[in-house]
Write a structure and sequence with these properties.
Elements: H1 23-35, H2 40-47, H3 51-63, H4 73-104
Helix pairs in contact: 1-3, 2-3
């Protein structure tokens, strides 16, 4: 009787890691899909993505298109507050960096 344990690690197919696509890339693919000059399958081959992603990004673009022309002041204020917060953090980090540079004598 063979009591040896068999490992199956080589028998399984390891999936690739998920790719992260930039917003610019998604917009480019979605705009090409909206033009309608090529099918989703053709665009998928051209941009090396799954055809379902082409349709998903196209639908997301169409669903959120009204936000481009939305003049809601809440959005502007939240972006301004976010930018101010980041600038404050940058200033603090620069001050800390200068202090540490002087203390360490570099």
């Amino acid at each position: 009787m063979n009591t040896e344990r068999r490992t199956f690690s080589t028998d399984f197919i390891v999936q690739e890691e998920r790719r992260a696509y930039s917003a610019d890339f998604k917009a480019q693919v979605a705009l090409a899909a909206i033009k309608g000059e090529k099918s989703h399958a053709e665009l998928a081959m051209e941009f090396s993505v799954h055809p379902n992603l082409v349709g998903l990004w196209k639908q997301q673009l169409l669903n959120n298109l009204n936000r481009v022309f939305d003049n809601d002041s809440d959005n502007f204020e939240s972006v301004t507050k976010f930018a101010d917060n980041r600038h404050a953090q940058i200033g603090q980090l620069m001050a800390e960096n200068d202090f540490l540079t002087k203390v360490l004598g570099r």
